[in-house]
Amino acid sequence: MAEFTMELSDEQKEVRDWLHGFAAEVIRPAAAEWDEREETPWPVIQEAAKVGIYSLDFYAQQFFDPTGLGIPMAMEELFWGDAGIALSIVGTGLAAVGVLANGTEEQIGTWIPQMYGDVNDVKVAAFCSSEPDAGSDVASMRTRAVYDEAKDEWVLSGTKTWATNGGIASVHVVVAVVDPELGSKGHASFIVPPGTPGLSQGQKFKKHGIRASHTAEVVLEDVRVPGSCLLGGKDKLDERLARARERAKSGSERLKNAAMATFEASRPAVGAMAVGTARAAYEEALEYAKTRTQFGRPIIDNQGVAFQLADMRTQIDAARLLVWRASWMATTGKKFESAEGSMSKLFASETAKKVTAQAIQILGGNGYTREYPVERMHRDAAIYTIFEGTSEIQRLVIARALSGLPIR
Ligand SMILES: Cc1cc2nc3c(=O)[nH]c(=O)nc-3n(C[C@H](O)[C@H](O)[C@H](O)COP(=O)(O)OP(=O)(O)OC[C@H]3O[C@@H](n4cnc5c(N)ncnc54)[C@H](O)[C@@H]3O)c2cc1C
């Protein structure tokens, strides 16, 4: 019988402690500055590259942890340090995963190293899917990719929005429509190599939180990329489109909104980010409650404060367990029959919003100022219920999985 354990291995503990050290010594002390500057923290990314945290090797090692806990542990520790800086460090990974998931070995070998650059010249990458009229409704995407057979080139045109690292990236991974009849089944992903003419940054957004992470529109005006930039290659795309057309004809598959469920396996990673932010705020609140004195005793002596902390910690632990379950399921190939990935992201992100608000309350007036980090953590936490599928979309995915019905 398989052994059940919730004990981390010595190796996992070692990695976790190493990451925690980097988060505590390098990320957290820089957090307030980069939040105010609202700029990509290049020197911190470079530090992460120097110690080996900003590299494909590092993520690959965590990804291949057979328990599935490598990635969530890494995310929790880095985002415990600071969400904006951590997203600047792991944002490239989102684009890299796009290439790993769909690219050929040659594409992986060519483009992923360019996404990270090297220690002396670090680069970032962007994953561009969302559009002004296609957020939750991915199937409404309009950016077109048209094949120019004579030149063996693809021509991309359209406007992407909300792209993390958009416009400042070396490599952009762009999702575009190759067959508008097929909804999200007619989408394909393309590499746009560094310096390609026609790609430009549109508006850079001024955000509520995670302000160290760059978020911008990406405008594509007749961007020509070689045929080899289609991820997976043309033969594979043609086969996939033919299959989708067959199914569309026979009506055997609902095409619209199919992409909503495709992130099931990656959502626990976002849940883990939320756990990191929630835990950071909870720890600040616990410490403050033990040291702040009112009415002649520490405020934690009041049940009204202590019980809040008890609830905060209980919810954080519950969120982590959901995240770990989903990550373990993804790694061990279990089927997400009840949308367990979405459950973990939904619960962890809502927990982060709630817990960071409670932390502000426990710190009183100080919690409301930028002298203390919980105000920033609360602003940062609001992103988790929005990106990688909003809380409403997670509920939709869960409800559909549970009922087997096309709940709308
Ligand atoms: C900081 C940041 C970084 C991002 N990074 C990236 C990135 O790197 N790459 C990328 O491609 N995208 C990125 N995104 C985009 C992100 O994934 C989208 O913002 C998200 O999917 C929601 O889309 P939307 O903003 O268009 O909201 P909308 O889809 O317009 O939703 C608005 C509201 O309506 C609700 N709603 C919509 N449909 C339904 C429904 N059927 N039932 C119930 N409620 C519904 C939503 O839940 C939400 O509350 C980022 C966004 C932000 C803010």
Automatic annotation (TrEMBL):
On whether Acetylation is a keyword of this UniProt record, the answer is no
Domain Acyl-CoA dehydrogenase/oxidase N-terminal residues, every copy: 9-115
List UniProt keywords, sorted A-Z. Answer: FAD, Flavoprotein, Oxidoreductase
| InterPro entries according to UniProt | Acyl-CoA_DH_CS, Acyl-CoA_Oxase/DH_mid-dom, Acyl-CoA_Oxase/DH_mid-dom_sf, AcylCo_DH-like_C, AcylCo_DH/oxidase_C, AcylCoA_DH/ox_N, AcylCoA_DH/ox_N_sf, AcylCoA_DH/oxidase_NM_dom_sf
In this chain the Acyl-CoA oxidase/dehydrogenase middle domain maps to: 126-223
Cofactor(s) needed, names only, are: FAD
User: Is the keyword Thylakoid assigned to this protein?
Assistant: no
Q: Which residues form the Acyl-CoA dehydrogenase/oxidase C-terminal domain?
A: 258-402
Family per similarity comment? Belongs to the acyl-CoA dehydrogenase family.
Database matches in PANTHER family = ACYL-COA DEHYDROGENASE (PTHR43884), ISOVALERYL-COA DEHYDROGENASE, MITOCHONDRIAL-RELATED (PTHR43884:SF12)
Q: What is this protein called?
A: Acyl-CoA dehydrogenase family protein
Q: What is the lineage of its organism?
A: Bacteria, Bacillati, Actinomycetota, Actinomycetes, Kitasatosporales
